[in-house]
């Protein structure tokens, strides 16, 4: 039986290096079931030398619960400790609403598309 059939969400996580930023693409749901995949991926990212920016591509995120929001805040604090700017790209729909409802919209640097976040990272490099 698939995780979805058991009521569990799925989160696919991949990453790549773009100039002076690591881009992590998220697809699916950022919740208690998806967090292990995200944390596992981030463990490898944190082992790398710091880059000027870490961009989370949220374009394909369909859901984010309170545990997911807590994880985003943890990522933000970890980035601050590494002197790495955290940018959220592709923030539309569900993620835009969640950030607005929680009052955290202004806590993050948010961009409507990944390209906008990449351009911002290039301008500030």
Structure report:
With 125 residues, the protein is an alpha/beta fold. The protein has one domain: STAS domain (Transcription Regulator spoIIAA, 2-Layer Sandwich), CATH 3.30.750. It has four helices and five strands, in the order E-E-H-E-H-E-H-E-H. The chain has a five-stranded mixed beta sheet, sandwiched between helices. Helix 3 links the parallel strand 4 and strand 5. The radius of gyration is 14 Å and the shape is globular. The termini are far apart. The N terminus is likely disordered.
Distance between the termini: 47 Å
**Total DSSP E strands:** 5
Give the class from helix and strand content and strand pairing.
alpha/beta
CATH topology: Transcription Regulator spoIIAA
Oligomeric organization of the protein chains: single chain
Any guess at the CATH architecture? 2-Layer Sandwich
- Please state roughly what percent of the residues sit in beta strands, choosing from under 5%, 5-15%, 15-25%, 25-35%, 35-45% or over 45%: 25-35%
Nearest-angstrom radius of gyration?
A: 14 Å
Shape: globular
Question: Which H/E pattern describes the elements?
Answer: EEHEHEHEH
What's the rounded overall pLDDT mean?
Answer: 91
Report the CATH superfamily: STAS domain
Q: Helix proportion of residues, in percent?
A: 40-55%
Give the number of helices. Answer: 4
* Poorly predicted runs of 5 or more residues: 1-6
């Amino acid at each position: 039986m698939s995780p979805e059939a058991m009521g569990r969400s799925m989160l696919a996580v991949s990453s790549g290096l773009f100039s002076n930023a690591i881009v992590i693409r998220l697809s699916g749901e950022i919740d208690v079931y998806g967090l292990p995949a995200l944390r596992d991926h981030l463990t490898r990212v944190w082992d790398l030398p710091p880059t000027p920016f870490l961009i989370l591509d949220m374009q394909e995120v369909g859901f984010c619960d309170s545990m997911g929001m807590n994880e985003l805040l943890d990522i933000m604090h970890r980035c601050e400790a590494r002197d790495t700017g955290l940018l959220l790209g592709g923030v539309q729909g569900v993620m835009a609403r969640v950030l607005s409802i929680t009052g955290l919209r202004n806590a993050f640097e948010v961009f409507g598309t990944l390209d906008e976040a990449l351009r911002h990272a290039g301008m500030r490099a």
